[in-house]
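Hi all, posting the design record for the shared folder.

TITLE: backbone redesign
STEP: 1 of 1
STRUCTURE INPUT:
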């Protein structure tokens, strides 16, 4: 009984840690998002949401973010605020869409943090101590903050040309990341299990929402699942077919709908097979592309190299690398014309890079703790050095876009 009481007390104390970290994440990314509301992608998407609310139709194919903003704006307590303060009422009336966009973004970041918490908690299997809870939430913040190592070319670029796991300027990417992260993790859990209708429905909803939020990742993830099963099992088993059905059919239907919506527009761009055409609008040559890949993935690359013997046969390693490679090939081999410089195929790569950081952080945190002597080994310290550089680059990126908001560069 005494042990149970201690355990309950520890769990209750952990809620204090959870609340503190959630407040920190809300403030951190709320402050980071605020300047973006008036520039770049956030500004245009809030205009689309307003147009959607007024006209009943969206000028854009991926409209989940717009619907969320409309819902959040409708839930703002405007009548109560109007009775309390005319000035606050005027602020909401004048900047209601921006307030709704900011609140929506903060909710998205919190949702992503909680999915990461579920993934890390179930994967790392730390003890129930407060320190372990702090470690998990610290790793969550790191996962949401890391950026490509950007010091060497800061005079000419901050993000363009790199493959960033985290950006503040694009609302549809950060929303799609919620569903893609959950879908990827659940596909790993159920890759070799019999899927019932309830689980299948959950996978279908996540697939639909991920594709409808931003289609790029699912364009590569569907083929990645097929290739993963063929490599792992030398065939596609019955349970694999069920998973592919529940994930693939909603994604295909949404992609088809988006294609039909785009084809009806007068200014529709086209996708063409043009190797390196898109990336070379932002990077001078192919060797530099490879260098930016290394700078974007220095920590994951070091973890894979130093731990390859132990992790090469794991399903998570195989599916992750296949997903990363296929999304990278889609980006490199295809281009959107005439909007080649928009690099619209890069969003799938960025999502895969985010998943890669999460996975390699888990590998590193599983094997090395400060209490363990192995923490001070080369296999631990080399990746840690790169991870600290990614974090420092994230700080530099954050400060830059908060203090000097403007076009992506």
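Okay, here is what came back for every position:
SEQUENCE:
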């Amino acid at each position: 009984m005494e042990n149970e009481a201690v355990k309950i007390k520890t769990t209750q104390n952990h809620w204090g840690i959870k609340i503190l970290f959630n407040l920190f994440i809300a403030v951190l990314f709320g402050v980071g998002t605020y300047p973006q509301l008036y520039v770049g992608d956030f500004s245009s998407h809030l205009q689309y949401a307003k147009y959607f609310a007024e006209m009943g139709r969206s000028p854009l194919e991926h409209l989940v973010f717009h619907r969320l903003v409309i819902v959040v704006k409708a839930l703002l307590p405007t009548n109560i605020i109007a009775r309390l303060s005319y000035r606050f009422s005027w602020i909401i009336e004048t900047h209601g869409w921006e307030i709704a966009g900011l609140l929506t973004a903060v909710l998205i970041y919190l949702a992503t943090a909680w999915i990461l918490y579920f993934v890390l908690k179930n994967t790392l299997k730390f003890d129930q101590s407060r320190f372990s809870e702090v470690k998990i939430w610290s790793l969550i913040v790191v996962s949401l903050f890391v950026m490509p190592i950007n010091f060497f070319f800061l005079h000419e670029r901050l993000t363009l040309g790199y493959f960033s796991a985290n950006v503040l300027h694009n609302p549809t990417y950060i929303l799609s990341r919620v569903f893609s992260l959950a879908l990827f993790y659940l596909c790993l859990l159920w890759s070799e299990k019999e899927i019932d209708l309830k689980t299948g429905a959950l996978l279908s909803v996540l697939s639909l929402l991920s594709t409808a939020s931003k289609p790029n990742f699912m364009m590569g993830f569907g083929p990645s699942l097929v290739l993963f099963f063929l490599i792992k099992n030398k065939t596609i088993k019955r349970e694999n077919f069920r998973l592919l059905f529940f994930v693939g059919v909603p994604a295909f239907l949404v992609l088809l709908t988006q294609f039909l919506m785009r084809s009806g527009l007068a200014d529709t761009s086209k996708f063409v097979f043009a190797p390196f055409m898109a990336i070379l609008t932002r990077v001078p040559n192919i060797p530099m592309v490879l260098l930016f890949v290394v700078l974007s993935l220095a920590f994951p690359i070091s973890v894979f190299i130093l731990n390859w013997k132990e992790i090469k046969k794991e399903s998570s390693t195989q599916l992750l690398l296949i997903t990363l490679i296929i999304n990278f090939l889609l980006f490199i081999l295809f281009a959107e014309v005439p909007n080649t410089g928009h690099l619209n195929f890069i969003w799938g790569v960025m999502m895969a890079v985010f998943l890669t950081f999460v996975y390699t952080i888990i590998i590193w945190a599983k094997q090395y703790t400060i209490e363990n002597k192995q923490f001070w080994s080369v296999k631990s310290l080399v990746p840690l050095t790169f991870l600290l550089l990614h974090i420092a680059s994230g700080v530099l990126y954050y400060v830059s876009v908060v203090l000097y908001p403007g076009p992506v560069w």
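COMMENT: The two ends are 60 Å apart (CA to CA).
Let me know if anyone wants the other runs.
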